[in-house]
Amino acid sequence: MGGRHVHGARRLLEEALDGPTGDGLVRAARAVVSELGAEERLLPLVRELAEGAGDPSGCALLSYRHVLGFDKLLLIDGGPRHMLRAHIWHPGPNAREDIHNHRSPLASHVVRGALGMELYETADPAGDSGVAASCYRESLSDDGADWLLEPAGDARLRLALTMEYAAGSGYALPPYALHRAWCASTGPTVTLFLETGAERRRYTDVFTGPGAADAGAMARKKPLDVRDYLAELSVLAELIG
């Protein structure tokens, strides 16, 4: 079942993302997530979804507390082409993600609060610049229910840029860009996140402090049931309204 705002968002995503590749896809993703993240577009979409429009049962199965520390609510599932999600970030001293990249191009728009971000680049592993880290390849189990971490050696990373995004601003990144983000406000931060691109990498690279993760570590996803998913959407509507 779909409502007017759900159909409109689906149509906009398909029109904007059908065709561009490479850097063009990154730019298109940034433009469309900014348009959909405006309150006059996002709030009625979330309210419509909270009333049961769209695909609540399918989206609930892909909505959960992410291992990187934010609440992830899938709004529109475009299959292998794109996924539109809301991320709810919570403040706290341990709220920063591990440094990582992605499987495909992404774009994010800050709807409420503020998001801090650091961009990193790799340094000579044998050198003394940057910080030491352990590299892991993060992939999904065959059924998609678990995150798997496999060790990929030692590395050194150098901080390249630190930024803070206020409500109304956002960014887009190619899949290989190393970064980490965190809630930079005293209350929850809400971002609209778009993952796109049919040609996706099989794994992402995750960097932690030396020895911070176990070889072959596994974390199970805990998806929401439909009732909790709809309740979370109602909470989201209150946060952004």
From TrEMBL:
- Gene3D superfamilies for the chain: Jelly Rolls
Q: Which InterPro entries match?
A: RmlC-like_jellyroll (IPR014710), RmlC_Cupin_sf (IPR011051)
Q: Which SUPFAM superfamilies match?
A: RmlC-like cupins
Q: Which domain of life is it from?
A: Bacteria
Under what name is this protein listed?
Cysteine dioxygenase
Q: Which organism is it from?
A: Streptomyces alfalfae
